[in-house]
Amino acid sequence: MSNIQDKVVIITGASSGIGEATAKELASKGAKLVLAARREDRLKKLQVEIQSSGGQAIYKVTDVTSRQQVEELAAYALKEFGKIDVLVNNSGIMPQAFLSENKVDEWDKMIDVNIKGVLYAIAAILPSMRERKSGHVINLSSVAGHNIYPGGTVYCGTKFAVRAISEGLRQEEAMSGTNIRVTNISPGAVTSELLETTTDSTMKAGLDEFYKVAIDADRIARAIAFAIEQPSDVGINEMIIRPTVQVG
Ligand SMILES: NC(=O)c1ccc[n+]([C@@H]2O[C@H](COP(=O)([O-])OP(=O)(O)OC[C@H]3O[C@@H](n4cnc5c(N)ncnc54)[C@H](OP(=O)(O)O)[C@@H]3O)[C@@H](O)[C@H]2O)c1
């Protein structure tokens, strides 16, 4: 039996891209999914698709920038399924531009979704995982959490932060003996709706060119499944997954 069977998995940002692909992959391996994002029509459609293939999924409309909504998401998972085994902390946006463009509102949004949203989700699920002495937190960082490039400064900053949060959480849980595993996933270029969050036309044109080599989101979903599938005494802590032909 797969080590994913019957695991309760919350996925933030499940309405498209990597989150949606991960939901489908884990559903096919018997997980009980709690899908979260802001677009209810997408979540409903995905739930129906998963259920009609014999999988299990519920959803809750959630804006991860609202601490209250994220707490309600965790409470809903516990009420419906009685436990939370895995958090796939995946919601993210990437409005890239040079700092000189002064898109301060976009910096705020990136920090709110990519950093604070990730932390709110960890805060919401950690108490129940610690109580059960079992759990797995999977954070979506990026190659941009390892490399810095012009125009990506704030996005890179948020993804470096996610990587720091992953490693800090890993160390703290390891020293506390809670058996909570932490996986930091750093994708390269992946086909999704992420580029649509870049409003700067020059930057968007460059990204469109760079993303010509992008791989499908199900490649990342498979890596996430691999991390979950390992025996509970094994933590896959860091994965960088680029298209084979991606240079930077
Ligand atoms: N695609 C890539 O090349 C790539 C590379 C490296 C890392 N990543 C990371 O992978 C993660 C998933 O991105 P993706 O590529 O799958 O992009 P995507 O297709 O745009 O998906 C992003 C998801 O985040 C959700 N989201 C955005 N703002 C939110 C909010 N305030 N509250 C809740 N959910 C929110 C979106 O749902 P709603 O709009 O419905 O809320 C959507 O489901 C992100 O963290 C991204 O930074 C992606």
TrEMBL record:
The keyword Mitochondrion does not apply. Residues 7-188 form the Ketoreductase domain. InterPro entries: KR_dom, NAD(P)-bd_dom_sf, Sc_DH/Rdtase_CS, SDR_fam. It comes from the Bacteria. Keywords: Oxidoreductase. Pfam families: adh_short (PF00106). The keyword Oxidoreductase applies. PROSITE patterns: ADH_SHORT. Belongs to the short-chain dehydrogenases/reductases (SDR) family. This is SDR family oxidoreductase. It comes from Neobacillus pocheonensis.
